[in-house]
Amino acid sequence: MKTMVKNYSRLALFGLVATVGATTANAACTYTITNNWGAGYTAAIRITNDTNARVNGWQVSWSYAKNTVTNAWNAQLSGNYTATNLGWNGGLNPGQSAEFGFQAVTNGGTVETPALSGSLCAATASSVNTVSSRSVASSIVSRSIVSSSIVSSNPVTSSRSASSIIRSSSSVNSVAPIANNIAALATATTSYVSPWETLAAVNDNSIPANSNDKSQGAYGNWNNPNSIQWVQYDWPQTYSLTNTQIYWFDDNGGVLTPTRAYIEYWTGSNWVSIGDVPLAKNAFNNLPLNSVVTNRLRVSMLNATESTGILEWRVAGVPVGQPPQSSSAKSSSSSSRSSVASSSGNSSTGNCTGPLAGTRGSNPILPNIFTADPASFVHNCTFYITAGRDEGTNGFLLRSWYVLSSTDMVNWTDHGAPVMSLSTFTWADANAWAGQMIERGGKFYWYVPVNKRGGGMAIGVAVGDSPLGPFRDAIGAPLVDDTIEMNAFNYTDAGQTVYTIDPTVFVDDNGQAYLTYGGFWRMVTVALNDNMTSIKGNWIERTPRDFFEAPYLTKRNGTYYMVYAAGANPATIDYATSTNPTGPWTYRGRILEKLPALAGQDAPTSHPAITEYAGQWYLVYHISNGKGGGTYRRQVAIEKLFFNSDGTIKPITPSTGLSF
């Protein structure tokens, strides 16, 4: 699939308001289809002020014959359609840019290229450029909503050929590229990557032609000026490292060569600096590593005025043994976890660096976005939360799912546009309700309840190669619906079935996976095959005491914990335990009391998940009494969770945020 990029030069795209005298502010603009899946797509529009006059405020208008915009970000959308800047991106100094994006559906038609109008940016459109799906034009920019500094993780596991990809050369590199490049054997993670860029570019073994050569993609962290961002390599074994080389990404705009960059290696307990990386453009920059022995390497970079990026990061070294382990890796639940533990949300995360002492978070964790029905898991030392996007005011309206993440439990990243929407499932038409993501075998499976076309709730499963997608329908049909359950239990009427919502998925130590779901005081568990997309064995209906909805299954010290919303709305969060993942369940008590609603609001819902990270367990849930919130505009919150010596859970009082 190709990604289409249409460049405009002073096209009639935006109307900008200039505030410096009567100067007319012109601009260079881009319009981009960033993803196209047939039935829908995402697009981005960028405006660059290329004059010497500051502008405050912009608008762009367009219309479609059949396409419909379902949601937008980084702009206020009205009518059919006019986008207006938000408070933070309306002012553009000379040379600065702003971008907004949106998701649209084709409604049975094709992806349309609309006529765009505005009082400025007017000129003749340039030719249409086509780039590979790995590389969107370097002029495209965006912004993720974060509570503080952006700290997230975006894992990419590399299994590439050792041969180099030669980009068409137009410059001479001052340093010969490392030949025995072990970077391709590492898993790359990062503090932040722009949604239109790709972390996979850093260790794809390619040789750039220059610092703006994106023919094989690029890593960039746009909209983080004067901010330290990092990329990290993790190897499955220890290496003695001789030297490293970095080819910086510089698009002569919002992503520039760093003003400082340095390399650190992991000792097993802490990061130690090796030295600064040279900062030359259009060349591999070499730094000797002096035969340090490690299984983790990190480059941190900063530009004082703009953001930073990497086209290629190479490392030379030879294997010497097993990876160093953290001396603090002593979580009692970790010792018995198998390689699939992180899939279940109760991962072996003792090797992860915990939150910094003295730091403090906030509840809700992201106050500027309304997300609900959270589930959580840990992957590559990043705490991920999946949640539905609340869009309603007088009733539930959820059409997409978001992913939130943190590596320090204080600073949280909303990964921009919806990571998955209802359009992923062609057989669904409404209700992007409470789901759960799980990793197995390098794939990420997302189990979600949706309304089927023709009526009735069902559970679908999507699959992707990263927690951030893209995701596709794994089977092209429901995994569970009324008909499937009727056949399993020999029911004669759909009214006999359990409400097909709120799936939770758990992989046990022996590799057996289980799906549990239910609502309205009934719960069902069934085993899954190893492919994670088909049913295995008997269906078992065993419902814990006071269960209402929102089950979440996990395991600690050989005991299975079922956490759930109890009673009815407004629900409490209760839990039960068992020696078997299918029950029977012994009621153990209450974790969280009923949560308050805002004045005049309906009774709030509740939805829990519990997950261990760096030796500490956490309860993730949603609230409906946050600023600007309500019963149908909920927000994710998180609390520390503690166990008594007998394995029971201590009750939790909601807080204003985590403290460390």
Output the keywords:
Jelly Rolls, 6-stranded antiparallel beta sheet, Immunoglobulin-like, 8-stranded antiparallel beta sheet, globular, disordered N terminus, 1% helix, Tachylectin-2, Chain A, 660 residues
Would you kindly provide a brief summary of this structure?
With 660 residues, the protein is mainly β. The protein has one helix and 42 strands.
Structure description:
The structure is a single chain. The protein is built from one helix and 42 strands. The radius of gyration is 25 Å and the shape is globular. The longest helix is centred in the C-terminal third of the chain and has 8 residues, at 482-489. The chain folds into three domains: 2-132, Immunoglobulin-like (Sandwich); 156-321, Jelly Rolls (Sandwich), CATH 2.60.120; 341-641, Tachylectin-2, Chain A, CATH 2.115.10.20. By secondary structure, the chain is mainly β. The strands form nine sheets. Strands 12, 14, 16, 17, 18, 19, 20 and 21 form an eight-stranded antiparallel sheet that branches. Strands 6-10-4-3-1-11 form a six-stranded antiparallel sheet, with no helix packed on it.
